Amino acid sequence: MSTLLIKNGTILTMNPAMDIIHGDIFIEDGVIVEIPTVKDQADQVIDASGKLVLPGFVQVHVHLNQTLFRGTADDMDVVDWLKRRIWPFEQVHSYESVYASARLSILEMIRSGTTTAVTMETLNHTEAAFQAADEMGFRAVIGNAIMDRWEAGTEMKGEDTQTALEKSMQLLREFHGKANGRLHYGFCPRGTRNATDELWQEVAKIAREEHVLVHSHAGENKEQTQRLSAYGGSEVEYLNKMGVLGPNLVIAHAIWLTDEEHDLLADSGTHVAHCPSANFKLASGIAPIPAMLAKGINVAIGADGAPCNNNLDAFVEMRRAALIHKPRFGPRSMSAEKVLQMMTMGGARAAGLDREIGSLEQGKKADLVLIDQDVPHAYPTIASSPVVRVVYEHQSRDVDTVIIDGEVVLQNGKPVHFDEMDILSQSNAALSDLLNRLSEPLRSEVIG
Amino acid sequence: MSTLLIKNGTILTMNPAMDIIHGDIFIEDGVIVEIPTVKDQADQVIDASGKLVLPGFVQVHVHLNQTLFRGTADDMDVVDWLKRRIWPFEQVHSYESVYASARLSILEMIRSGTTTAVTMETLNHTEAAFQAADEMGFRAVIGNAIMDRWEAGTEMKGEDTQTALEKSMQLLREFHGKANGRLHYGFCPRGTRNATDELWQEVAKIAREEHVLVHSHAGENKEQTQRLSAYGGSEVEYLNKMGVLGPNLVIAHAIWLTDEEHDLLADSGTHVAHCPSANFKLASGIAPIPAMLAKGINVAIGADGAPCNNNLDAFVEMRRAALIHKPRFGPRSMSAEKVLQMMTMGGARAAGLDREIGSLEQGKKADLVLIDQDVPHAYPTIASSPVVRVVYEHQSRDVDTVIIDGEVVLQNGKPVHFDEMDILSQSNAALSDLLNRLSEPLRSEVIG
Questions:
Q1: How many domains, in total, are found in chain B?
Q2: pLDDT at position B153
Q3: Which of A166, B110, B300, B361 could crosslink B347 through cysteines, CB 3.0-4.6 Å?
Q4: A200 and A255 share a domain?
Q5: Contacts of A49 (CB under 8 A, 6+ apart)
Q6: Cα dihedral angle (B48, B107, B316, B429), rounded to 10 degrees?
Q7: Alpha-carbon distance A196 to A178, whole Å?
Q8: Residue ending a domain, choose from A300, A318, A350
């Protein structure tokens, strides 16, 4: 048995009462067993004096494999962004390049206090993403993209239904529940119309039987949403017909959905992954999150892919999620408290992990982040709430310690088990190799 | 004579050709004398290997005295925000509290690579803001708020015309051009209708004669803008009648101006201070910056006050300035390059200091920021532009060195000449004293 004691912190429990307590947390074998505790000895003791202690952040829409493409696709029209960057790049991914990209992503997320991510990868090499998460001690719900049907104009080569399903099933068998339960599989039909009816129905059935998440995109781009609806029914109506709506489905973006679609999401318990930075960067629009919350839809937050953000930073997304709705819905439409709930318990719920993570309560996994309060950009402290400071003021530079599953993975802002410069240089090398696999003239266009 | 050599950097000159050069910069007595240089000796040599070297950022709308109120006025309606926080707080400011607030502000700005700010203070104790800027080696255009006329409902007590003008004149005489030319005075009628016609006309005349900046607010809040226009003419038409439009006027926000007002700004060479975070936080709206740029208006950027942001961070504002216009104007409507120009030369122009700062060119003052490139959130680097990385990826945590007027004020991310913890603890103490000067029941409401 291994024990860990976090002492003297200001603990934002994010429990249903939103209790903030000053005290200690006792952890045994990666599980919170007493909060607060009077125990004063453990195998490892961490002094959290002057620090805020929060549940680790949960980002529910990320593409680990795309981080390698960061900075190669900026200020472009969306069609070019996909056709001249993301699709061709993903198609020449190798095991090594997905691995390098996933390691870089996880490093950045951990540095921003993110302890869990729900991710959608590409058609191949998703085992490399699992390997990176496993080795780096990260908690993740990872899925291979499913594309057995695609719109005219989608130049990414898809797969036949059986191949697509079999790849997912194999990854599910190999990784789901592994690494002390840190790794999970999640089915990822890329968009509502990127999978056939047959595949959607099969995925819905298996996911329910196996208690596995389904993770897709819907309502991201106005023109695309209108085009997809022309196939016969709105995107969410279509998902409803396929029988996949429900508490184990997360849809990313949800910008252009109708009131009727909101009702379907609310009634079914389907979760929304809000991506505030990406929706601005790609000029997609502003999702009506306050309206969805008012209907009782669970909304969580994700950075999406680095090429459309360009960070994977929980603080950047929280601040943005708190600010973007105010001009449209008013200054009180999105409180700091609500945003912090979305980034913790909201994320845990969307990931299907709310019994394990998302708050600091007895019996939950020890996924924690310690934030240094003594920083100029979050002072004075005497008349402000720590919740306000976390959402509007703190930055990832203030993340001092990150603990996942009871293991300290970041200490004094530095990774404990892996070498940062090694991950950086490998990302440059892997991108260089990947670009060399592109055909001309795209390769020259990108390299310049 | 003192010499400084910056070696081996990747220099984003921000000159008219936007040249990026790899090389060295030679500085003599605070002035760039050779760029690039082959000189290899100097009194002080800084190794910029692996770093980006940029002109220091210029923020053109900041309230130094309000930083002390950070985190006390969040998610509030705008009217409450002013009436129950900002106005009563400013009225009980002391020399000590303005000084503590200015020191905290300047510390935060320097840590984000900001080397110059154009600021509007309150009705009293503005000499404390000058003292802080002087001691900390910061470059600033600082002004005392002028309020000799106010709308019904403005509960902040104003002053008579002669008192208001005399206070400004005294500060102008005492500080303008001091500290080797780092300190400047700027007249600050608080809003278009917070000064009488007489005072606006007098300020316009003196400012032109003395080559001094005028800095005010216009077009921030939709309802307020409509109300002000009802007095007889739009805000910018009014400023035009007062004879104050021109290259030595900066107006903050400019969200709700008409096309005709844009034309007046463009024709007169008046500058706009864009405050992207504050405009969202106070639910004010989104200024049509791409449309103003298309008319040839010079737009610069500022964080505004900490209570409506809550950071004073150049990177946060640049990223936001690049993102917020895309949903409305398209993904190519605001490029990283344009934003970086606004934060450097655009700011220098607005401040009236474009012959001194804003770019790294021979003869300019040595105001520089060195950014560490080897960070996970800005990798890979081999196929991305440094301009894109600065605007979309880097954060203030990456600021390694800041030089103002040839003096190194931040090194390895730490202040050289002042104690960070001292500034933090003094800000808490000063806020505590200030809150004790509030009358009840406000005091209890704020302290909780």
A1: 2
A2: 56
A3: B300
A4: yes
A5: A7, A8, A9
A6: 150
A7: 30
A8: A350
Which residue in A has a C-alpha nearest to residue B109's C-alpha? Answer: A377
The stretches in chain B having pLDDT less than 50 are none
Stretch A275-299: mean pLDDT:
97
Nearest beta carbon to residue B383 from set A78, A395, A446? A446
- Give the integer Cα–Cα distance in Å for A318 and B102: 27
Residues A38 and A65 in one domain: no
Range name among A109-123, A279-293, B71-85, B290-304 with the lowest pLDDT average: B71-85
| Chain B residues closer than 8 Å to A379 by CB | 70, 104, 424, 427-428
What is the average per-residue pLDDT within A346-375?
Answer: 98
Is A358 domain-assigned? no
Rounded to whole angstroms, how far apart are CA atoms B118 and B303? 11
Q: Verify that B266 and B402 share a domain, yes or no.
A: no
Domain interval for residue A284: 57-350
Report whether pLDDT(A152) > 80. no
How, if at all, do strands B31-34 and B20-28 pair? Answer: antiparallel
pLDDT band at A295 (very low <50, low <70, confident <90, very high): very high
Indicate the burial class of B420 (C-beta count within 10 angstroms; 0-12, 13-18, 19 or more).
middle
Q: What angle do CA B296, B299, B301 make, to 5 degrees?
A: 170
Whether B198 and B262 share a structural domain: yes
Q: How far apart are CA A343 and CA A250, in angstroms?
A: 14
The pLDDT value recorded for residue A154 is: 58
Percent of chain A with pLDDT over 70: 99
> Which of A283, A423, A432 lies nearest to residue B326, judging by beta carbons?
A283
Mutate to test the interface with A, among B59, B65, B66, B74 (most CBs of A within 10 A): B74
Residues of chain B found within 8 Å of residue A374, distances taken between Cβ atoms: 421, 424
Could you read off the pLDDT of A189-216 as tens digits, one per residue? 999 988 999 999 999 999 999 999 999 9
CATH number at residue A164: 3.20.20.140
Is the CB of B380 less than 8 angstroms away from the CB of A428? yes
pLDDT of residue B77: 82
For tokens 């700091």, the residue is A336
Query: Does a structural domain hold residue B430?
Result: no
My answer on whether B342 and B369 are in the same domain is: no
Chain A interface test: which of B65, B136, B374, B384 (most A C-beta within 10 Å): B384
Q: Does B23 touch chain A (CB under 8 A)?
A: no
What pLDDT is recorded for position A448? 73
Same domain, A242 and A105: yes
**A445 found inside a domain:** no
| Domain harbouring B378, CATH code | 2.30.40.10
Write the residue in A74, A279, A336 that is nearest to B336 by C-beta.
A74
On average, the pLDDT of chain A sits at: 96
Counting Cβ atoms within 10 Å, is residue A180 exposed (0-12), middle (13-18) or buried (19+)?
middle
CB proximity under 8 Å: A 48-87 to B: 68, 70-72, 74-78, 81
Minimal Cβ distance to A383: which of B374, B420, B446: B446
Domain end (from B350, B384, B399): B350
**pTM (predicted TM-score):** 0.97
B181 in a structural domain: yes
Q: What is the nearest CA distance from A332 to chain B, expressed in angstroms?
A: 5
Residue scoring higher pLDDT (A251 or A223): A251
For the stretch A296-349, pLDDT in tens is 999 999 999 999 999 999 999 999 999 999 999 999 999 999 999 999 999 999
Distance, CA of B149 to chain centre: 25
B285 and B395 together in one domain: no
Q: What is the mean pLDDT of residues A63-79?
A: 93
Do A217 and A233 lie in one domain? The reply is: yes
Residue A84: CB partners within 8 Å, gap ≥ 6? Answer: A73, A76, A442, A445
